[in-house]
User: Fold this.
Amino acid sequence: MKIDLHIHSKNSDGADTVEELIPKIKEANVDIFALTDHDRTDGWDKAAELANQLGLSFIPGIEITTEGRVPDGEGNIHPFGIHLLAYLPNPNDPELVAILTTNQKSRVTRAKAFVANLQAKYPLLTFELVLRIAQEGSTLGRPDIAQSLVELGEYPSVNDVFNAPDSPIHKRSPYYVRNEAPDVLEVIRIVRNAGGVPVVAHPLARTSSEDDQPTYLPREHFQAMVEAGLLGLETQHKEVAPATREVLELFAKEHNLITTGSSDYHGLSVKPFNPLGLHSTSLEMLQRILELGTGAKPTLNHKI
Ligand code: AMP
Ligand code: ZN
Ligand code: FE
Ligand code: FE
Assistant:
C-alpha cells in the first residue's frame, strides 16, 4: 500500500486545485493520502468527497508555519523555521484557528516588507506583481518574489535567484525579511489539545538556498519538542539527507516517535518538483496516527 502524507494543493502553494489533484493521486497509485496545505484546512471537504468517489483513503492534515527558538548558551535566540505537520486536528479548535489566521496574515505582511526592501535595488518590483504571480489564496513566499524577479528579466530562473552568490532573497541578504511565526513548542501543545498528531516536516532539511540551516542535530531542541507533545518526525523526505535521516530515526526509536515518509508534492510550480508517492509511510505508522488523532475524521476506503 502506498501512503503519502504530505501533499499541497492550490489552496496553499501547489499548482493543482483539489479537483485536479485527487485524480492525479489515484493515477500515481497512491492509496492513502493526506492533504497538508500550509496553514489552512479549506481543501479537506472536497478532498474527502473525491477520495470517496475514487476509492482512496484521505487523512486531513495541515503544514503549520512555526519557529524554533534555540538559545545558544549565551542567552541569544537564533530563530529558525520549522514546518509542523498536524494530522487529524479539530479544524474548529479556537486556538488552532487563531494560529492559522495569524500565519496567513503574517505571510502577506512579510511579503510586503520584503518587496519594499527590494525596491531599493529593483524599482519595478511591486507587491501587486508578486500577488499576481502567486496563485489566488496561495501562501506568499520567496518563490513568488523570485518568480517576479524572473518576470522582470533580472534573473533567468527562480533557481538562479535563490542560488546566486549574492542572492537578494537569501537569509543573509540585506533585503531579507524573516517570516514571523509562533513558537513550535506552543503550536505542538495547541495541536495536541485539538486532538491532532504533530509531526515535524522535513526535519533539518537542506535546500540549496538554506545553507545556513543547522545540519547537526540540536538534540535538546528535539527533546524539548518531545516534552511539549511532539509525536513524530518526517524522516523520509527528499530534502532530508541520508545521514541526517539515520540520526533522526535513531532519535525516533529512543523516544518512541512515529516516523513518516512523504513526497511534499506541489505539482508543477515554481517549487522543486517532487512526484506523488516519492516516499511512503508504513501502515504501522499510519495506524498509530489514526489511533492518536481524534480531532477530525479520516475518510477510510481501505481496511487498516
Ligand atoms: P519562504 O518560506 O518564503 O522563506 O520561502 C522558502 C521556500 O522557498 C521553501 O518552501 C522552499 O521550498 C522554496 N525554495 C527554496 N529553494 C528554492 C529553489 N531553488 N527554487 C524554488 N523554490 C525554492
Ligand atoms: Zn509548500
Ligand atoms: Fe515545508
Ligand atoms: Fe510542504
About this structure: The first strand starts at residue 3 and ends at 7. The chain has a mean pLDDT of 93. Residues 196 and 293 are 5 Å apart (CA to CA).
